[in-house]
Amino acid sequence: AQQTTRLLEQKVAERTKSINLLQRLGSSLSACSKMDEAAEVIHHMIGRLLPETRGAIFITKSSRNAEEMLVCWGGRVARRATVQPRHLLGHAQGAHAPLKR
Q: In the predicted model, what is the mean pLDDT of residues 63-85?
């Protein structure tokens, strides 16, 4: 029973830490007025939220024929800083939303 209680306490502590980080991320992003500021916030905090993952956020170029990497984490994600939209998961799933710099 004590071991189960300790495991539950550990899970609660981990989830609480994640929730606090998400709240800080949201607050920090709300204070950003430019994309490069948001990219810096994400780059600084995402590793703590998703410690064993790799990923990137891309934005649509004004020509709408390519995506430009805004930020990446967890190691190299793409060989190029620009990729074709069809190669991105969010675009393939219909989550493609244009952002302005």
A: 70
pLDDT of residue 74: 84
Q: 3-state DSSP call for residue 17?
A: helix
Phi, psi for residue 77 in degrees, rounded to 5 = -105, -45
Q: How far is CA 83 from the centre of its chain?
A: 18
Work out the angle at residue 58's Cα, subtended by the Cα atoms of residues 52 and 60, and round it to the nearest 5 degrees: 170
Neighbours of 85 (CB within 10 A): 16
User: Rounded to an integer, what distance in angstroms lies between the CA atom of residue 1 and that of residue 11?
Assistant: 15
Q: What are residue 85's phi and psi, to 5 degrees?
A: -55, -35
Residue 41 has pLDDT above 80, yes or no: yes
Of 45, 50, 52, nearest to 23 by C-alpha is: 45
